[in-house]
Amino acid sequence: MSMKKLNILTTGGTIDKLYYDDKSDYQIGEPEIGRILRAMHVAFEWEIRALLRKDSLHLNDDDRALIRQAILASDDTHYLITHGTDTMVETAAALGDLGKRVIVMTGALNPARFIDSDAVFNIGCSVGAVQSLPPGIWIAMNGRIWDPKKVRKNREANRFEGI
With a threshold of 0.85, does the pTM exceed it? Predict the structure, then answer.
């Protein structure tokens, strides 16, 4: 199944955070993925829908239902969801079976605006993954593609790892 268009859904999370002071007060800004894809001159059609601007620790069942409905309301087959890393696995589980769609979730452990952010790398991995994986829900983090049922975030090591 070849990708006609990449449908990008943004939910907030660290990837889009803007920090303001030494106490780590932040707001979630505009989705950074559009800026990143334009800068990389990608050779495919894409569309961004900013669904939420929340830290993933603040996402609830209604938010997850909104993400699911946004996917079901479209005939598109390829999705990239930017999401906070703390509850990415829980959201993947809540999305359930979405038919013949390829859905890749990614995020960042450091804001995209930070020079040492993993955001561009994770988005690049996600873009490659969404074009080559079979239908299902996947997580792209730390240079790996994960089955959401077999991965967790190790908060102490600040990385994703298999379970």
Answer: yes
Angle at 120 (CA atoms; ends 98, 132), nearest 5 degrees = 40
**Does residue 1 form part of some domain?**
no
In the structure encoding, which two tokens stand for residue 56, read together? 């993933």
CATH number of the domain that 128 lies in? 3.40.50.1170
| Strand bridging mode 6-12 / 151-154 | unpaired
In a domain, residue 158? The reply is yes
**121 is in which domain, residue-wise?**
6-162
Q: Residue 125: helix, strand or coil by DSSP? A: helix
| CA pair distance 57, 86, nearest whole angstrom | 6
Is 42 inside a domain boundary? yes
Mean pLDDT of 45-62: 96
Q: Is residue 116 part of a domain?
A: yes
CA-nearest of 135, 132, 161, 131 to 146 is 161
- pLDDT tens per residue, range 104-137: 999 999 999 999 999 999 999 999 999 999 999 9
Q: pLDDT class for 28, splitting at 50, 70, 90? A: confident
Residue 28's DSSP bridge partners are: 17
Domain count, the chain: 1
CA distance 89 to 108: 14
Contact 137, 90 (CB under 8 A): no
